[in-house]
Amino acid sequence: MIRTLTILLLLLAAPLAATAGPAPAAPPLQKLFGGPFTLTDHDGRTRTEKDFRGRFVLLTFGFTHCPDICPTNLNAMAAALDRLGDAGKRVTPLLISVDPARDTPAVLKDYLANFGPRFIGLTGTPAQVLAAAKAYRVHIRLYERPGHQGHQVDHGSLIYLIGPDGKFRTLIPHNTPPERMAAIIGKYVTPRR
Ligand SMILES: [Cu+2]
């Protein structure tokens, strides 16, 4: 009887062990988002997607003259990573510029200092930026706004979480509160054991 019970428990335990993985399963959207890029960081160094392997990346696209979407996203990203404490240190927040004509490395560096020391800004030639935007299905549209000097850039506002393997994990919509964003990121960065 005891032996039967042991075998039964082992049989029950096997599928549990298989499903209690370290992180949520690979999302169905994984094939849609991500790809190679070559850009220049805010210190003027060439960076590709491979440079971020081994770390989680919290990626968004934007530009330093953005009046609303980008400051909201970047503040929320910074606050969410702060809330995660040590786990947040495993995540590199990235901003890829959609306005390379104005966002030089130096301009990006100055701008990102407003959001704390964690951010890395990436810019490049228009073709390099377009390639990165295409990989993440981000639309970019330049337009003139009456009363504003220079062009504005309409751009996709999603935030992407990328795993240490370089693969897409999940999307976080614009206007997600920092506490909710921290909870989403935490599920991946600090999986239950
Ligand atoms: Cu923006």
Which structural class is indicated by helix and strand composition?
alpha+beta
Overall tally of structural domains: 1
Q: Summarize model confidence as the mean pLDDT.
A: 88
Report the CATH C-level class: Alpha Beta
CATH superfamily: Glutaredoxin
User: Looking at the structure, what is the overall shape?
Assistant: globular
**Known CATH architecture:** 3-Layer(aba) Sandwich
Enumerate the strands of the largest sheet in spatial order, edge to edge or round the barrel.
2-1-5-4-3-8-9
% residues in beta strands: 15-25%
Radius of gyration: 20 Å
Helix content: 25-40%
Enter the CATH topology name.
Glutaredoxin
Helices and strands, in N-to-C order?
HEEEHEHEHEEEEH
Task: Write down the oligomeric state.
Answer: single chain
Q: What is the helix tally?
A: 5
Ligand kinds: copper (II) ion
Q: What can be said about the biggest beta sheet?
A: 7 strands, mixed
> Which ranges are low-confidence, i.e. pLDDT below 50, for 5 or more consecutive residues?
1-20
Distance between the termini: 32 Å
Give a short synopsis of this structure.
With 193 residues, the protein is α+β, with helices and mostly antiparallel strands. Helices cover 33% and strands 23% of the residues. It contains 5 helices and 9 strands; from the N terminus they run αβββαβαβαββββα.
